[in-house]
């Protein structure tokens, strides 16, 4: 098991995808042990680590990060999680292209990620998924439009709301205040091989 | 990747934990490749298959199911998903006890699951998780009380709401109608080894 | 118009029904100018004032409050809102009974309000509404059971969630954090006259 | 009391503002008995009737509707509700201007309502409210921008979600499926007199 104390501590803050959203990415794409993932940007590395904990031991997550300091932090965190053989932090600019081919999932979590969807399309195997995470509706729309222009089918965009139920002797009730919105998750699917043929 | 067409088709209906809820179970406990899980009851087997796709290839999911027909269906589905070496469907009554020891996660999804939490406690390793899924608040309360009586700490109970955002040229808006509630997920944690010692 | 600055200032805090919930009470019962309301307890008087602003000028709201200090505060606030002829704060214990008869709406907002539903039933005209506000599910259940025992039909129980949409040049998104739960609103309806006859 | 059976029957369908949203309009603006309202378009007349039931007997609601058939229906419904002296259905095009001055509230519920906000500004008294109802985020943004250009301050945009809690002997739980989104409510406020002076 991933240590949830560390996970919770490091996954706080506006910059990090929360467990509830990371969970949607893996579950709604069907990610499993053995799969190959490209992630950008790494940030503190926690989405890469979460995805790595699922695709391990034979799968792989390559996480692009152009900032030196973030890349160093992400690498440290991946080692801490015991996933240094599975999660690779690559100091590179994802806007310049993705070197990998035939990957199962590309996750894009940064501003203007719509400008990287064509790279994601090239990296994915037929039937593979590209998932974008965006706080604003306008970003979602730009991402879907760029994705469709690149050849993707837009599967769905969702938001995930998690609310605690307080369970107490004196009475049960939902929590009073909390997180009402983090971001939208957009799922683009590269068409299966037969659907792609006419374009080749 | 798990085939999402099959997943979505089979995961419909009131009897099956939806992907959004299965996702919370794995992500909030930190389940990863190599972990051991006990699940009850199997039903159509899809929660067991989802968890199996994460813990594969060296991990294991044992799913208890006392109904002959459900057990046969679940076994067929596990084979279809290519996880017959990871997911074991066991035709047995979980109320009579859980044979496994040192497991990382026990998931309980059936009416009166509060009567099985002591068995879950015995099966788990220190620090392991027991997660219950219940549609009604009263069931949650009974489950938490039985869990605390068995030695568990109640970590949290949550509900997960997923809403689609329709992204269209003419305008973006959340979906008009949809699923508003499936069930509550209750997370019980077995105390770490040092905390358990005084009781031994 | 009621001054929203005062309204918002005074309607903050856990003890006061928020505008969103007050709004559900009036709109879902169809409260209108000329109606008669009994409210308990008054607290700071703001639910009484809100309801009074709708039933004015010929309607009436009698608000029961047994605490001397709260009754004084509520009376001061009603005068501030210019509704002293419409909203009457009565220093009395609602558990001892409701003097009014033929009223359109009774609102009950206090712990153990289930013990006052029989008084509400006696005060209401046939077809009238009794609305309870409760943070906890157990309170709702006790209220519904007591209401049905007193002769009411349970129309519905709802919770109302309001989320702000941030509208900005750089992008639109729901607010990040906020109020996730205040209380449940339970609507009990006294049967129409003809339905009541067999019991007379 | 407004008859809730009629209300509920007529307020179904995508074209009509639901009670939950009408409730937000009146409660968050502080609408009360004696106020003056301009509404457009009338549609079946139910928002006008709801608002009329609050501002009665001395207040007034003028509801603009350019379609002959809708105007006739709305007038019939207003009579049925006993509000023919309070609610006036005016067969006129709101894009051509609003004749009234010094009104407390203008409600705009139609596509491209951003093109009528300047008329709303002229009709309102200082401190008055203009509320728009829009299903899509893009419409909200255009409405806010047009409102600010016309001199309004954007107070807030909200969405209101109402979920039923099923209260049953066998257990309490939120409803399984239902309405997840109707529209966004945008509240624009005309600045108070002193703030407007420099512009005169």
Question: Please, could you describe this protein's structure?
Answer:
Four copies of one chain form a homotetramer. With 200 residues, the first copy, chain A, is an alpha/beta fold. The first copy, chain A, has a single domain (4-8, 17-192), classed as 3-Layer(aba) Sandwich (Rossmann fold). Helices cover 33% and strands 28% of the residues of chain A. Chain A has an eight-stranded mixed β-sheet, sandwiched between helices. The first copy, chain A, is globular and about 65 Å long. Chains in contact: A-B, A-C, B-D, C-D. At the A-B interface, helix 2, helix 3, strand 5, helix 6 and strand 6 of A face helix 2, helix 3, strand 5, helix 6 and strand 6 of B. Strand 6 of chain A pairs antiparallel with strand 6 of chain B, so a sheet runs across the interface.
């Amino acid at each position: 098991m991933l240590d949830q104390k560390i996970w919770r501590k490091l996954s706080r803050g506006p910059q990090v995808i929360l467990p509830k959203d990371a969970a949607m990415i893996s579950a709604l794409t069907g990610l499993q042990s053995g799969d190959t993932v490209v992630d950008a940007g790494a940030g503190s590395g926690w989405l890469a680590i979460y995805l790595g904990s699922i695709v391990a031991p034979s799968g792989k997550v390559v996480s692009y990060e152009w900032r030196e300091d973030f890349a160093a932090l992400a690498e440290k965190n991946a080692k801490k999680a015991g996933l240094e053989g599975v999660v690779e932090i690559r100091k590179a600019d994802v806007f310049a292209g993705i070197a990998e081919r035939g990957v199962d999932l590309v996750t894009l979590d940064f501003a203007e990620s719509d400008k990287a969807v064509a790279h994601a399309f090239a990296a994915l195997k037929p039937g593979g998924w590209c998932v974008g995470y965006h706080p604003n509706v306008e970003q979602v729309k730009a991402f879907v439009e760029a994705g469709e222009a690149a050849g993707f089918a837009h599967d769905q965009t969702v938001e995930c709301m998690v609310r605690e139920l307080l369970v107490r002797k004196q009475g049960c009730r939902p929590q009073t205040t909390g997180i009402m919105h983090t971001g939208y998750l957009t799922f683009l699917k590269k068409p299966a091989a037969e659907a792609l043929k006419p374009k080749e």
